[in-house]
Structure formats: C-alpha cells, structure tokens
Backbone:
C-alpha cells in the first residue's frame, strides 16, 4: 500500500517543563526550532517538580542535596549552553519558586505567544539573573511576549490553580520523575539530551500509524 | 606560526567505568570506535561506585531506591542499545557485584586485549544474562579476550586490591559521582550521553596546546 499523506496525523510530542529546572531551560530555548526541523508539533505543559521530589523523599533539589552532582550540573550547563549558543549565567538563587510563572504560562499557552512567554521567563532567570518568583519579573515577561497584564491576576483563579495541580498529578501518573521530560503516546523521554530521541520517536510513530 | 605535528601531544581521555553500571555498558561497547574516529586515545579505568554511593547516603543503586527512575532507565537503555546496535537483555540481578571483574580488568588493561576483556564482561552481563560475580563467568571472559587464567588469582593480590581502592578514591577526589564518567585534564563529563562532548573537548584541548 502507498502511504496516504492526507490520512496522516501530525506527529505530536508533549514537552513537560518546570521553571526552576536548569535543563528545562536548554530544551525551552531550542525545542521550537528542533521540532519544526523534525516535522513534529509541540504541546507545552508546565508542571511542578516540588511535589514529585517530595514523594521521592527530597526536600530540596537533588543538585543541592548532592554537592558533587550540583557542582557538575552548573559546569555541564555552561558547556551545553555554549554548544547550543544559548546565553547562560548562574542565578544567585536556586532553585527559584516557579509557581506563579507556571500558573501564568498555563494561560499564556492558550495563545500563539505562549512559547515566547515561556522563553522570556527562562531567559530572565538563567540569562539575566532575575528572580522569577517576583511579580514584576513575570509582568515584564508578559510585556516582552506581547501578552496582557491581567494574566497575572487571572493566574490565581481556583480553576487555574487546580489545573496546575492536575498537570503535576498527571505527570506523576505517567512516570515522570524529573524535568524536562517528553512524552509521545505514553512513551517517556527524560532530559534535554533525549530531546532528539523523543522527536525521532514522534516522527516515526506517526509515519507507522499513517502508512 | 604553523602547527608542528611532531610537538603535538596525542589527545587523551580517561574513561571511568563501573561494571555494575548500565550506562557504562553502552560506553564500553562504543568508545573504542568513537575515540578512533575522533583521534583521541582512551585510558580505561575501572572503579567502584559502591563507596561513592554510600558517601551520598545510598545503600543501593539509585535506580532501585527510586522505582520511577529505575523503570525509566531500563526502557531508556533498551532504546539506546537499539540506537547504537548493541545487544541488550535486562539481567535478573541488578546491580551485580563487579569487584572481581574490576580487579581482573586492572591486570587485563596492561595488555592490548584489555578493552576486549572489558567488553566481554559487559556483554556477559547485559547481553547474555550471566552473573559477573561468578568466577566461571570471568574465566570465560579471559578466554574470549585471549588472556591467561592466572589473572583470576593474581587479581586478589594485596597490591592489586589496593590499586582499585586508590582508583575509587581518585575518582571521588576528581568529583565523580556516577558512571560512566570521562575526564580530560581534570574536566569532568558524566554519562554515556556526554561521550561525544568529552571526545570533542579532548581533541580541541590538544589542538590548542599543540598549535
């Protein structure tokens, strides 16, 4: 049989990110171009690592709990940023509280400017040295992405707060234990260094289903 | 000035591996070809993760302590093995005791057949389902690599045992916290997915020093 392009579903990948996560920064900055090149559509999903780490018995980032791992991570992140041409400066506070940013991102991602907002928040934290827990930082990121300031207040609605809790529960049920993660039809990929594997899997999956 | 090839030191990278480590398996199977292609010489160094994990408060492999992480690792390992064309079958026992294998490897690596012995041990564990803590398994690996059986007894000498303890202490002093790791003049790279970064760094380092 010949493949029938009109019956093919677009290849889709869900990108799970946590604003406090350093390697999520790398993926956030490069996923749009990488996915376009691979012919894959990206669903951006913010979630919170805090409750997932707590369930594993970690009261803090493992990069703080295990100093050798933490020292290595900052060095590796600087090297990988350089490799990808992404600006990087180690923030004074780590991890930062990304709850407000995640709540606003949920609203922003209903708009085409959503990814630009997400990148603005990551850039504020890991390139400009700002604190993303500050309302003024998030306000500036909304401006930069061309999104309305009222998202800051809307983000605190009970529905929107519940949606972020649900996203985190869904992540845990799908077996996520870190960020960034990528899922394609229930298949899980963890870490910025698995982005290419995940995109390849999404592309192949669709080709098989559509042939 | 023109570069003077005769004055250039060969690019060198130290490959730190633990026989119980799943991702060390992938690196062990592919590093020889990858390093040759990159023009880098590899120093193979077995060490033990047990004392390093114990210092971080882990009485077992983190893949056993954190089940979500463990489930993911086996899936990821199967996918990555397929990607590299490396045979893979999940062993019944994990982690296995690799102390005897590491002691014998130290002696084997004084001979040109050393890397072949290391690959034979990893293959026995992760492709053939054997237990590398068994003396008979290691005996068969020596045979396969064309190395003498008396290495099995020689491996238990006080000097050789002390050498493995020293290797592990050196690893910890260099900031190693997992395996595989790669070091190039004190610069640390962790994980099979950083092998290419490490080789590139080794190659560049030498080019800069020798130019």
Residues:
């Amino acid at each position: 049989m010949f493949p029938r392009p009109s019956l093919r579903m677009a290849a889709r990948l869900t990108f799970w990110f946590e604003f406090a996560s350093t390697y999520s920064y790398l993926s956030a900055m490069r996923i749009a171009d990488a996915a376009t090149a691979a012919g894959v559509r990206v669903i951006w999903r913010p979630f919170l690592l805090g409750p997932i780490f707590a369930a594993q018995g970690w009261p803090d980032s493992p990069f703080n709990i295990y100093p050798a791992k933490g020292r290595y991570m900052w060095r590796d992140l600087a090297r990988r940023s350089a490799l990808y041409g992404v600006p990087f400066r180690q923030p004074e506070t780590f991890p930062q509280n990304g709850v407000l940013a995640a709540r606003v991102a949920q609203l922003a991602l209903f708009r085409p400017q959503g990814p630009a907002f997400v990148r603005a928040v990551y850039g504020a934290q890991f390139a400009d040295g700002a604190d993303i827990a500050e309302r003024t930082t998030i306000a500036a990121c909304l401006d930069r992405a061309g999104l309305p300031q009222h998202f800051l207040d809307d983000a605190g609605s009970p529905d929107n707060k519940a949606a972020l809790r649900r996203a985190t529960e869904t992540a845990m049920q799908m077996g996520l234990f870190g960020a960034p993660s990528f899922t394609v039809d229930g298949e899980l990929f963890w870490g910025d260094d698995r982005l290419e594997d995940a995109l390849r899997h999404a592309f192949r999956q669709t080709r098989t289903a559509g042939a």
Remarks:
- The domain at 5-210 of chain B is CATH 3.40.30.10 (Glutaredoxin).
- Chain B is about 55% helix and 10% strand.
